[in-house]
């Protein structure tokens, strides 16, 4: 019910309603294709537009979960104070709602890639990639939702941190570029960013882009799942004080 409510609120009052879930990724693809041509990225690097779109769509799922989760607790004060239920359901429902939108976006992106003459190279790899990213999004959502109850500056801090996180993730550039500029012996630290593994796995699934290495991908995946368990533990410990703080 909460997932359905979150999906309805997102498009409440709009003429096209849920159709925006399909139109939004189409608009993104159109915008990026225009600017890629203006900046001549598409000419200098064949396949760069598809490379960029896969990375952007993966990032948008993560960012939407983080931003929506900030208000999953503070935006439901009456529910928190008047009803006894597992509070963890609130950030969980925001992530699931965004997952629904993400899967619709993936369907649109797949149609676009087929129209561009590119068949998904390893579609089976999308399953562990989406599961791992969902685990990461849940962990971040649990932490952000609980943190925003006690520290209202969390919303502003995450805005700054998400921008830095975006540029540290190989979205506009290949992971090889990041690894080549890393200090000697410290290239593995790039995979402490869990979104690095997610983006690389998504490009491997859709475009067949080579994976950077098993150890790095395992490290990135381990960080994602560790953040899920850490975020859940922090949320469960903090939820006892939600009603008092709100």
Explained architecture:
The protein has 246 residues and is mostly helical. It has one domain (2-12, 20-245). The protein is 72% helix and 0% strand. The chain has helices at 2-10, 20-38, 41-44, 48-69, 77-82, 89-115, 126-150, 154-168, 175-180, 194-207, 214-238, 242-245. The chain is globular, with a radius of gyration of 19 Å. It starts with a helix and ends with a helix. The mean pLDDT is 86.
Descriptive labels:
single chain, 246 residues, mainly alpha, globular
Shape assignment = globular
Task: Note poorly predicted spans.
Answer: none
Distance between the termini: 23 Å
Instruction: Give the SSE string.
Output: HHHHHHHHHHHH
Helix content: over 70%
Structural class: mainly alpha
Arithmetic mean of pLDDT: 86
Query: How many strands, which pairing sense, and closed or not: the largest β-sheet?
Result: none
Outline:
This protein is mainly α.
Write the layout of secondary structure elements.
Blueprint: H1 2-10, H2 20-38, H3 41-44, H4 48-69, H5 77-82, H6 89-115, H7 126-150, H8 154-168, H9 175-180, H10 194-207, H11 214-238, H12 242-245
């Amino acid at each position: 019910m909460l997932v359905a409510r979150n999906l309805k609120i997102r498009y409440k009052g709009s003429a096209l309603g849920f159709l925006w879930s399909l139109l939004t990724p189409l608009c993104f693809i159109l915008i990026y294709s225009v600017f890629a041509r203006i900046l001549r990225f598409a000419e200098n690097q064949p396949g760069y537009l598809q490379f960029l779109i896969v990375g952007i769509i993966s990032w948008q799922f993560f960012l939407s979960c983080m931003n929506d989760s900030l208000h999953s607790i503070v935006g439901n004060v009456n529910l928190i104070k008047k009803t006894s239920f597992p509070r963890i359901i609130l950030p969980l429902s925001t992530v699931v709602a965004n997952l629904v939108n993400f899967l619709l976006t993936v369907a649109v992106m797949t149609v676009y890639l087929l129209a561009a003459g590119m068949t998904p190279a390893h579609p089976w790899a999308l399953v562990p990639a989406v599961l791992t990213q969902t685990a990461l999004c849940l962990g971040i959502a649990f932490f952000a939702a609980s943190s925003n109850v006690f520290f209202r500056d969390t919303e502003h801090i995450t805005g700054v941190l998400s921008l830095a996180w975006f540029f540290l993730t190989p979205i506009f550039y290949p992971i090889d570029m990041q690894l080549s500029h890393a200090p000697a012996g410290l290239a593995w630290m790039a995979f402490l960013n869990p979104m690095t593994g997610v983006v690389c796995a998504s490009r491997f699934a859709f475009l067949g882009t080579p994976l950077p290495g098993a150890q790095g991908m395992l490290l990135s995946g381990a960080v994602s799942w560790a953040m899920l368990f850490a975020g859940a533990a922090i949320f469960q410990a903090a939820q006892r004080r939600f009603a008092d703080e709100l």
